[in-house]
Amino acid sequence: MNELQVSCDGQRYSFEQDQTVRIGRSTDNDVVVSDPTVSRQHARMAWSPDGWLYEGLGRAGTFLRGNAVASLLVAEPVELALASPHGPVVRLEPSPPASPAVPPAAAGHVVPPPAAGPPLPAAGGTAAPSPPAGWGAGAPSPAAGQAGPFPTAAMARSPVPPRLGAAAEARDALASAVQILLPGRSWPTDPGWRQGLRLLVIAYALLPLIFLALFASSGNLTTPGWAYSLYVAPLWGVAFWLLIRPPEPYGKQELLIGLGIVIWVLIWMSLITVHINSALNPKTLLGALLVGFNEEITKALPILVAALALLKLRQVKLDVRMWMFLGTVAGLTFGVREASEYTTLAIEHIAAAAVHHSANAAVTGALSFAYRVFVDGFQHAIWTGVAAFFIGIAVNYPRRRVPLILFGVTIAAVLHALNDWYLSNFSLPWPWIVLQAFSLLLFLGYTMSAASIERRVRRTPLFRGESMIMERFTETGEQPRR
Hints:
The chain is of the alpha+beta class and 482 residues long. The protein contains eleven helices and eleven strands. The protein is flat, with a radius of gyration of 37 Å.
């Protein structure tokens, strides 16, 4: 049986020739490589008439002794580096081919005797051993320098390479060490440059310097708020994605919905939200509550419209975790737009403190700027994420649709209102921090239990019911799309 032994990450696997071996980072592979640089579906191996064939599938690439290979016929043990020449190593060991049986001598065949004559004397006067039977006249003998059962004179006289001087050896050793420790030649072609994490690190290391070069002479005080809020918001977006983990599949449809939500929030804020807020007083509890509902409806409305439109027009329901993530996108968008205005006040505060030589006021202004840039979008995102979770449940399981939507938006609006009211009336920070911690723990709780809550809702007649779209298809006899 032509078996294959695969070793990686301290694990050893054995496969037979009727199996297809899948290698990659995803846990559904036969050989799982946990390194994040490895593709989810990195490679595949299968038995072919010529032996085990290795085929690369992922974009990260495979390397044999530093050279990229797309496919390889594995006829002997070999070690392959995944994702880069210095990536995790997979050792492939095919079973050795069976040794061919020696055919018996044909009947009547006589092996000719060795040529007559005494054995040649060897050095020192002793007789050299005779060649084996069958090396008679006309029989081929090992070529000069070729490994065989007996050494040849040519092998004995093979030249010995001259020994380099001590200085030359030291220079060669230094050059080898430099090539090993500074592999600059291999870096430009390393596929690791195409990985999103490294590109993100490059962007986030250089963008502050680019902002300083581009906007240092700008007289618009909203520019720093826009620049740094947009700088921080994608980091929060990545964190929310990892926390919520919307299930696959997702693609262009979800990307377009997210883009539409961003555009909706920006336009709605400029045309409606800002003007309503200007007529309200957040210093009173009622005014803060009205502000909370105004801003949370601004962020929740595009989620609801997108979910209903997708259901009515395409009969498609997204997982509630996807709606929860899209809710955080709406919240981050609102926070970035809001921060661009509030950071203007913080910069003016710093400028006034500089004029009056007040260090305390300058510190307060700097911290206010940092708070708006780093935290404003995050706060709006977690509130809207909770509201969007309930909107997703309401759209997917419509028996209690209106109460669920109102419940989710009210939770977000009340937390939002308490935050604004406390900031407008009190100077002690600790109760405000406790309120923020409660909001965060509530959001994290739903990120952990969203899937289990949806499963329980699906099994409970109290929520499940039948949607209007399903009733319409039932009446007409058509079958809804899944």
